[in-house]
Amino acid sequence: MKFTEEDQESALSANYTIRLVENWPELSSKEKVDLFNSLPHGEAEELFYSLSAEDQWELLALLAPYERRHWLRSLPPDDLADLVQAAPEDQKYDILRSLDDKRSGEVMALLAYAEDEAGGLMTPLFLRLKPDMTMEQAIHYLRLQVNSPVGGSGYAYVLDPDQVLVGVISLKELLLAPKTARIQDIMSTKLTMLTETIDQEDVGRIFAESGLHALPVVDHDGRMKGVVTIDDAVEAVAEEATEDIQKMGGMEALEHPYLKVSFFEMIRKRIGWLAILFVGETLTASAMSYYEEHISKVVALALFIPLIISSGGNSGSQASTLIIRALALKEIRLKDWKMVFLRELASGLTFGLVLSLICLLRIVFWPSAQTIYGDHYLLIGIVVSLSVAGVVIWGTVTGAMLPFILRGVGLDPASASTPFVATLVDVTGVTIYFSIAALILGGSLL
Amino acid sequence: MKFTEEDQESALSANYTIRLVENWPELSSKEKVDLFNSLPHGEAEELFYSLSAEDQWELLALLAPYERRHWLRSLPPDDLADLVQAAPEDQKYDILRSLDDKRSGEVMALLAYAEDEAGGLMTPLFLRLKPDMTMEQAIHYLRLQVNSPVGGSGYAYVLDPDQVLVGVISLKELLLAPKTARIQDIMSTKLTMLTETIDQEDVGRIFAESGLHALPVVDHDGRMKGVVTIDDAVEAVAEEATEDIQKMGGMEALEHPYLKVSFFEMIRKRIGWLAILFVGETLTASAMSYYEEHISKVVALALFIPLIISSGGNSGSQASTLIIRALALKEIRLKDWKMVFLRELASGLTFGLVLSLICLLRIVFWPSAQTIYGDHYLLIGIVVSLSVAGVVIWGTVTGAMLPFILRGVGLDPASASTPFVATLVDVTGVTIYFSIAALILGGSLL
């Protein structure tokens, strides 16, 4: 087992399955089935379990019915629920029907949860113990449970007769405790647990804070419903970030990877915001029509419109991006808005000062300034620089406050997308610019 | 243990520590120390371990020296390494000096790794076994190791005499296997492992694919160096997403949470891109100066400048955001660029068609169209609509291809930030607009 320096990525493929999964999307349907059928059972199993729910369903649909049933029955309930969600509408029922009653009941119960709640992430299978067992009894009891696919969470949960969760014990503790000790004396009663409806965005954070690899999910009476293992949380964290990033880019979040989304679905998710923002942006034309006379008198003013509005857009994008992410990670809370406001106001002032200085130097010292911008190039330079300062301050503060406002009224702060902030700032930016122009050039040029 | 429907968030605080950690940033230094000292040892411990490295250091700095030493020595090497990195430059050495030689050696070894490599995430402590042990011997051997803080990874690793990793066994298997079985007959030899220098971006993905809760880190000769547990991966996934989001917002990635970054550090991270983009955007003024005469003849053309360039900016932002994230998640690869190009070209054509149609209707059917835009409002409407179509197609394709180009030349695709794409598209957008105007209005108005 030797690795070469250059060969980073293939170092991983000491595990054959991972290499297969990486190349999987590139294979044709026929190649997938042939490869899958050619693998020894153990490897086929490993490959199957490491595929995404979509890929699992794609493969199953290609297999013979009896094989499909075999693979379906080998999956634990939470993965089955994902698979049912990934399957086409008209085949969901077929999947459920091919399971035994107990399993299909478990899967239906999981499907009742929203996909992005703790309940939708959990598996209802876990190792359970009773408080008054000895270690020896406990190990015997676990051996009986271990034939069912209980997952590798590494903990056993201690339930009272009403199924209320009263303690947890790690398998390591179980392994190393004296044989005669009782569960209730060794179990930990300090429990971090999740309610069924907690959002998956919070689940990732709670895992990171707790340092545990599995968290129990309980109902409102403290009765244990299942376990969320941390691998589901890793996926959930990445998924939440992807959703936020897509919203911040000015589109609806996609439900599948880029190449798995059909062309028309992709158009549908993107055109909405583009059209809304476009209509919003037409307001700039309306706003500017009030200043048409100014422009016809001093055409040089028109040359700086893109510069002005994009400065506002850029500083606004930056601020909103920063605040949306900090809110998502709970680094800041709704009630911190005042502190953030002051801080971003100070940042905006600094940015405005620096950029307007660059702007002034650029206009005044440009070799051909006088030819391009006319005799009053200095006056125009002052108007543009002041406008840049005003628009940048306005953009920074607006971009920073908009996510708070959205969160405050119960919307997703990530909807304060970069294009949304930019469009909002554009309309006001134009007004700021021409108001300053009217004020300064009023006596002379306009 | 009853939870009310409304009381989602506090349902978690069945675990007292998590509640403490959530309120922690709001406490004054004095309150932190007082609270910490007032807790029973077990709870103080739990609180301390769940704090971030920054918060741990802040607290330690306030404690008496002998107490500080006690807490430092209780930390496992990977957390110590994080703490040393969080501490001010002049105190890093003091921390290392207060550890025993073995531990400070381990910490120094970890500090040699970059923070965002697998080596920087791992702990060098893990449960180890030899291949020829029986289960009974193994459990005895583990009891000897378990006094040191070996972490709860849930696996024991089987090493040959050269420390080369040859197998892995879960504690569950160890717990449930017959006493006389030998490790080598039960251990799994299909290993997923990480090399020391693999990037943390990939670590999260490999965890999700492997479904394991801990992965061994090996050097180039397959010798075991340590273990990355999945909780570190959860944090790494969130961290990588945050870095990408901040870069995509047009700034340098922050190293600490929003409220922990000093004002001047924050300015420094943000002003650079703002200034560069501002200077880039001044090219729009230069480009437009070529068309100054056009504008003076048909002032109405100026009114649509913001609409045109923002349409390009918005469609470009959307496309670049989508592609950057898909590249980061390995949903698409560099070699997929041609397929993405065709797809985004088709998307751009669709968006361009829809938006230019909206545009034409908006200009022609606006009640006061003739008053605002002059007698030739229809001709101007056609110019603007065609320009919108052109700019949107150009923006979509540019936004989608830029991340590929950056990745191709070895830069981070996330640097194709929304403001960067918008600025790039602005300059060309102005040129597209006035070229179309010159072409269509050439005979009549210009």
Describe the structure.
Two copies of one chain form a homodimer. By secondary structure, chain A is mainly alpha-helical. The first copy, chain A, has helices spanning 8-11, 16-23, 29-38, 41-50, 53-62, 65-74, 77-86, 89-97, 101-111, 118-121, 135-145, 171-176, 183-186, 200-210, 230-248, 263-289, 292-297, 300-303, 305-328, 337-365, 369-373, 377-408, 418-441, and strands spanning 127-129, 155-159, 165-170, 194-195, 214-218, 224-229. In chain A, the strands form two sheets. Chain A has a three-stranded mixed sheet with strand order 1-2-3. The first copy, chain A, has a three-stranded mixed sheet with strand order 4-5-6. At the A-B interface, helix 1, helix 2, helix 4, helix 11 and helix 12 of A face helix 1, helix 2, helix 4, helix 11 and helix 12 of B.
Query: Largest protein interface?
Result: A-B, 145 and 145 residues
Going across the biggest sheet of chain A, name each strand in turn: 1-2-3
Mean pLDDT of chain A: 81
Strand-pairing-aware structural class of chain A: mainly alpha
Number of strands of chain A: 6
Overall body shape of chain A: elongated
Oligomer: homodimer
The proportion of residues forming helix of chain A, as a percent range, comes to: 55-70%
- The rounded distance between the terminal residues' Cα atoms of chain A is 79 Å
Rg over C-alpha atoms of chain A, rounded to the nearest angstrom: 30 Å
SSE series of chain A: HHHHHHHHHHEHEEHHEHEEHHHHHHHHH
* Total of DSSP H or I helical runs spanning 4+ residues of chain A: 23
Uncertain segments of chain A: 1-15
Q: DSSP strand (E) fraction of chain A?
A: 5-15%
Biggest sheet record of chain A: 3 strands, mixed
